[in-house]
Hints:
This protein has one domain. The chain has helices spanning 22-27, 48-54, 99-103, 146-172, 174-185, 208-226, 233-250, and strands at 2-4, 18-19, 34-41, 56-61, 64-74, 135-138, 141-142, 192-195. Strands 2, 3, 4, 5 and 8 form a five-stranded antiparallel sheet that branches. A three-stranded antiparallel sheet has the order 1-6-7, with no helix packed on it. It has seven helices and eight strands. Iron/sulfur cluster binds next to loops.
Amino acid sequence: MEYNFDxxxxxxxxxxxxxxxxxxxxxxxxxxxxxxxxxxxxxxxxYFDHTTRLGSKVNLSxxxxxxxxxxxxxxxxxxxxxxxxxxxxxxxxxTQKPSRCRTMPxxxxxxxxxxxxxxxxxENWDCDxxxxxxxxxxxxxxxxxQDFDREFDDLLNQADTLRxxxxxxxxxxxxxxxxxxxxxxxxxxGQVIVSFFSLLPRLPEVDVAEFAVKQHPIVExxxxxxSGISALKKYHKHYxxxxxxxxxVLNQ
Length: 252
Ligand code: SF4
């Protein structure tokens, strides 16, 4: 079976959260407000094995373990555009954009054979799926696969670091386990949002002061963008707390 797909320049997929590899998060610290997103994936989920391969497995109790997808992300509310989306709906950093944006609509967070449903445009998205659009997926195989393979390899290469990070953070912050448990039970799933700062001690090669100089103005910008909007309260709170952590580094 063949699938045609072309992304027109509607830019609608450039709103909201964008998962990033660790490499991309650091490379774009001067563009996106970052956070760590923990997403529980239950054993019954068809992506459980794939999730534990790229993420981690966490024992919630003696009898229950869950997979957790742990990903840095551009943490942006669904109602706000990516800061790099231009007014004509093109990407200002097209040649340097993150792996996630290059691989869209495919996702290496699921098996290659389970990508077909990602080629159904979401409500209000203007993706071209007519016969005029190029064939991108044939017999459960991605046709042009360099971007997908690159992103998958990056996720695989960072998996050990993220597993060590998860073990360390769960041992240091007991409330995180409670939050994961709560989200794992939530109908339709949920995410636990953790400061990007929590990852930095596991990345000894990163100059934290230099990172803070790049991130702080972006976070300040999102504090302004979300100020006084009740639907964006939780984002605003996250940015404020994150900005305080960044300021602590900047003031040292
Ligand atoms: S970096 Fe470019 S492609 Fe990626 S979300 Fe932002 S505007 Fe869209």
